[in-house]
Amino acid sequence: RKEFVDLYLNHVFNESIRRPFEDFQRGFSRGCPAGAWKMLLPEELQLLLQGHTKFDWNLLEKNVTYENYTRSDKTIRNFWAVFHKLPEEKKERFLAFLTGLHRVPGYIGERFTFAIVDPQVRNPDEVYPSANTCSHWLNLPR
């Protein structure tokens, strides 16, 4: 029985996917030559491809720049007070809203920054917050 189970598991997890995996590996290697990947440890490669799964949100607050705002403005203080009370999932959704990505890319890491910008509109109550995902700007009306 043990031999049967071993052979069956080998078939399911190795032999049955060998051909599709080889096709995938060939395509991946065509776009990303293997020589460049061999210098990375598996954890580094995973971080590079997957991005950071955990992020220091306090560090994010420290790295933010402000345009037409200061860190001490009431709108900014309220924003961060609410942000830090959010559950992790909603913080990740905010990150996706801001950048188009639900994780911080591995190559950016602790240097990730964004800007909070006051769009300076006549009636801020008529304008929703918006984001420029390319520039990592959050347009936050007062």
TrEMBL record:
One of its GO terms (biological process) is ubiquitin-dependent protein catabolic process. The active site is at C134 (glycyl thioester intermediate). The keyword Transmembrane does not apply. Residues 1-142 form the HECT domain. Transmembrane segments: none annotated. The keyword Ligase applies. Signal peptide: none annotated. This is HERC4 ligase. GO terms for cellular component: cytoplasm. It comes from Heliornis fulica. It holds the Pfam family HECT. One of its GO terms (molecular function) is ligase activity. Keywords: Ligase, Repeat, Transferase, Ubl conjugation pathway.
